Structure formats: structure tokens, C-alpha cells
Amino acid sequence: MPEIAEVARIVHFLRLHLVGKTIRTASAVDDQIVFGKAGTTGDAVSAALTGRKVISSGSQGKLFWLVLDKAPHVVMHFGMTGWLQIRGVQTSYSSLYRDTDTRVETWPPKYTKFHLTTTCNPAVEVAFTDYRRLARVRLVDCPGADIRSHTPLKENGPDPVQDTDRFTLAYFQSKCCASRAAVKAMLLNQKFISGIGNWVGDEVLFQSRIHPEQKCNHLTDAQTKTLYEVIRYVCQTAVGVLGDSHQFPSDWLFKYRWSKGSENPTLPGGEPLAHVTVGNRTSCYATRLQKITLDGVPVVVEEEKNKEEVVEEEDGGRQEEKKPSPKGRKRKAEWGSTDMPKPKARRGRRAAVKKTEEEEEEEEEEEEGVKPSKPVAKRGRKALMR
């Protein structure tokens, strides 16, 4: 997912190629998710852009915008796979966006949600793409200078790079002390701080030597101060190179965190890496360097006992293996007795299915601080036959 550095990268290109120019034409598809869930339509966005001069572009965390010479202005969020392409310009920052390079012949590109062309010669052509439709494009009707005082920007926390007057150590410590959430989940909460996503969250916790499941209110003052300083360092460094991972320091976890699924992933020094789900996101951490602590002292977490181990008898110290579960009719009879525990319900195939795009969309909205909409209840066959 594009985070604070990647968004800063695209704003850099917008300021370089689009700001100060007038939009001759704009066109958008009728996407009821990308536009509709942000309270607008593709037609409304294209109408707001057509004939307007782009005055400025800015960002706050993962959100960025275009201020036009007349309201409404356009505020965007990339979601998981959104990106902004400029024809003939290499805006991409990794192989994930290899389709955005200058050799792409089809224009507008595949999965375009809206695209525009300027009046200058040669014209600048810009396209907003998103194949998973988790991005959001909305219109904000306000004076351009006040855009950050309006939804959705006003609901989000301070940007750790731009808002140094708001993102202070005192602010950060107060938020940590008041939260009992896992520290990784708190960092992903855009209401608390804007711009930190999965890889930035893992990076700052790795460099701070803090476990992603560490409770915020169990952090010591020294740990909180270290984490605050590392957040500023990582975000400023990543933004400074416009999200170009090739320029990240060689000792960053980023260089090695994408090893999920490989056998025994490690850092160059041999430190083992592991993955755990925190805040609905997969977190990567160094198991020997990042420990859960209480008052700064590592806590030993007892591993789950093997269900197949033998049970020791209290009277003689002898061991006997667990008896197998009864089968057939005998099993049915014994399950009915009061001293026999009932079997656990089996998990069907549906329970093991991967998350749908709708579930990921809700998680994305929660991360942005937007309350996800409730799903519509499905009607059964009997209801439909009435």
C-alpha cells in the first residue's frame, strides 16, 4: 500500500508537471465504489476538473489533493493499489508499479478511474488508476487554503514530517499512555498519526526494538521517546528520497521484510524473522531483538503445549497416552453422557477462505478512521418466494 513516502513522491510529480497548468479535458468512469463511497460520482469529478487551473498540490499522510482555482477541490487516497500516472514520466517507485513506466503504449492505462489533459503544448496527461477499487476520490467544497480543516483531512492525526508543531513528544506520549492497544495497531490508526502503514510501522518498531504486540500503556518513557524519534527519522528519510527503496539504508528491515513464506527468513547477521498478525495486518519482526516487555523487562511468553503430548498421572508419575476418540455408534452413545465433552465443531472450507475484497475494504476504511458501512442482509429463498 502507498504510504507517507509514496504519496509524497506523487505530490512531487504533480507539482513538477501539473501545478500551474489549466485542464482542457477530464473524463471519469462511473465507479460507485471509488467515487460513490466518497460521496461523489465520476461525472462530478470530471466536471470539477474540466477548465480549471491547478493552483497547488499537497499531502497529509496517505491523503493528497489538488487545489483548483475554483472549488470544489479533489482529495484522493490510493488505498491498497491505487497510483497516479503521468504520460511519458516514470512516476513509479518499485516493481509493483512496473506497468507505469514510460514505455506503456495504451492510454489511458488499464484500470483508469479518471484522466485529464492540459491545454499547454505539449499537453500533460494524467491518469488515476486502481485495479482493486480500494482507492477513494472525493470533492471538497471549501477555500483551498482551508482544505485541511475539512473532512476527511480534519479527522486524521498529524503528519510526522510536515506537522512538527503538532506531532511532538508530549503528544505522542499522551496517546501511548491512554491506549491499551498493541503498538503496531495504534501506529496504523490514521486518527492518531497520518501516513504510517504496514511497512513503515514494521520499520520503526524494528529500529526501536519493540515487539509489534507490545501494549502501548506498557511502554516505558525511554521506549516511547525512542519510538517517537525513530518515527520521525524513518518518515523523514523515506520522504526525503521520495519512497525510492533503493536509496533506503542497508540496515533497514524493509530490505528483508518481504520474506514471508520462505524457509527460515533471517537478517544478514543471522537474526531470525517472524510474522504475526496485528491490527488486521501481517507484521514482520526480529524475534530475538524485539521482545514483549513489562516495565522494560522482557516477558517470557509460554508457548502453547502440544496437544499430542502424554499426560502424567498424579499418583505414580507414570505416563499414558491419550485415548483415541470413540467411533461409530459407541461414539454417539458416549457423546450423550454427561461426563464426556462434546466435540468441537469442524471448520468448513468457507471458514478457511481468504478475506474478500469487501473485508479488506472495511479494514482499509477502519485504518483511515472511516466507519465502514454495514453489509446488506441477504434474503433467503423463502423470502424471495413470497
Mean pLDDT: 82
- The total of helices stands at 9
Helix content: 10-25%
Beta-strand segment tally: 14
Strand proportion, as a percent range, falls in 15-25%
**Taking Cα atoms only, what radius of gyration do you get, to the nearest Å?**
26 Å
The run of helices and strands is HEHEEEEEEEHHHHEEEEEEHHH
Class per helix and strand makeup: alpha+beta
**Spatial shape:** elongated
Biggest sheet record: 4 strands, antiparallel
* Neighbour order of strands in the largest sheet: 1-6-7-5
Q: State the end-to-end CA separation.
A: 46 Å
List low-confidence stretches: 98-102, 303-322, 330-343, 348-354, 369-386
Q: What does this protein look like?
A:
Helix content is 24%, strand content 17%. It is built from nine helices and 14 strands. Helix 1 runs parallel beside helix 6 and helix 5 crosses helix 6 (221-240). The chain is elongated and about 65 Å long. Residues 98-102, 303-322, 330-343, 348-354 and 369-386 have low confidence and may be disordered. Residues 2-135 form the Formamidopyrimidine-DNA glycosylase catalytic domain. Residues 306-386 are annotated as: Disordered. It comes from Podospora pseudopauciseta. Pfam families: Fapy_DNA_glyco, H2TH.
What is the structure about, briefly put?
It comes from Podospora pseudopauciseta. With 386 residues, the protein is an alpha+beta fold.
